[in-house]
Write a structure and sequence with these properties.
CATH superfamily of the largest domain: Alpha/Beta hydrolase fold, catalytic domain
Order of helices and strands: EEEHEHEHEHHHHEHEH
Helix content: 25-40%
Strand content: 15-25%
Largest sheet: 8 strands, mixed
CATH class of the largest domain: Alpha Beta
Number of helices: 9
CATH topology of the largest domain: Rossmann fold
CATH architecture of the largest domain: 3-Layer(aba) Sandwich
Strand order of the largest sheet: 1-2-4-3-5-6-7-8
Length: 261
């Protein structure tokens, strides 16, 4: 596996990206554009994106990841995921220039990176893999949503140990009652989810939506999305960043499936 660090521009700002390829001078026809979520560096949480890129490159698929403006090694002003379409487009162009044999590029993002790809109707990619898309509105992020609370109590009701603890008086009833009342609140209007739905409707390529079942962001997304959507894939053991060994393996398998399709 060969790893190269590249510079490119976006709105006159210097951005930095990293491209992993199988071997020097050899580049597959399908590649992965890895878009970072939040304000994460292109290496990802705990270096997870760097390790994932190396694995996919070793399997024959070039991978390009980058720091958007104002994040990590890149210059400029960080304007958040809603205003990252130019950054993604510039990274995609840099990827295609650095790997001229590419015929198609699959875009992959987790959390608000997935939301950015959806808002941009694919942002010029040929296919999309969207993990735990961010649908939480401003002001909802500071406290558990009714959606995530309902998912939490569904799991607890299926857990014999949790039920035994409740019956033995090991649960404080006051906080439990307040939490249950919050869970009964109707779901908040999901305007961001509507925007994502509209944006994705404008994309004509293949799409997979990957959900980490232990993740609040994924739970909230699912509560605001069509649960019968055939593009949904669920990983029961995964938390938000797919850090668990079995979740890492599951994620890599889904990406390899999409890249090899």
């Amino acid at each position: 596996m060969i790893r190269r660090h590249l510079e490119f521009t976006c709105a006159e700002a210097r951005l930095v990206g990293t491209m992993d390829t199988p071997t020097e001078g050899v580049c597959g026809r399908t590649g992965l554009l890895l878009v970072s979520g939040g304000n994460e560096l292109r290496s990802g949480a705990w270096g997870g994106q760097a390790r994932l890129a190396a694995r996919l490159a070793a399997a024959g698929y070039p991978v390009f990841r980058f720091d958007r403006r104002g994040v990590g090694d890149s210059m400029g002003e960080n304007q958040g995921f809603r205003h990252s379409a130019e950054d993604i487009a510039a990274a995609l162009a840099a990827f295609r220039e650095a790997a001229p044999d590419l015929r198609q590029v699959i875009g992959f993002g987790n959390c608000d990176a997935a939301a950015a790809l959806m808002l941009g109707a694919g942002a010029g990619c040929d296919g999309l893999i969207l993990a735990n898309p961010w649908t939480i509105e401003e002001g909802e992020a500071d406290a558990p949503s009714a959606d995530s609370l309902r998912a939490h109590y569904r799991r607890r009701l299926l857990d014999p140990a949790a039920l035994r603890r409740l019956l033995r008086g090991g649960v404080r009833l006051g906080p439990l009652a307040r939490s249950l009342l919050s869970a009964l609140r109707p779901a908040a209007p999901a305007s961001l989810a509507d925007e994502l739905r509209k944006g994705l409707a404008g994309f004509g390529g293949p799409v997979s939506i990957l959900l980490a079942c232990r993740d609040r962001t994924a739970q909230t997304f699912l509560a605001r999305w069509d649960k019968a959507d055939p593009r949904l894939r669920h990983c029961p053991s995964a938390s938000h960043s797919f850090v668990e060994p079995e979740a890492q393996e599951w994620l890599a398998e889904r990406l390899l499936e999409a890249l090899g399709a």
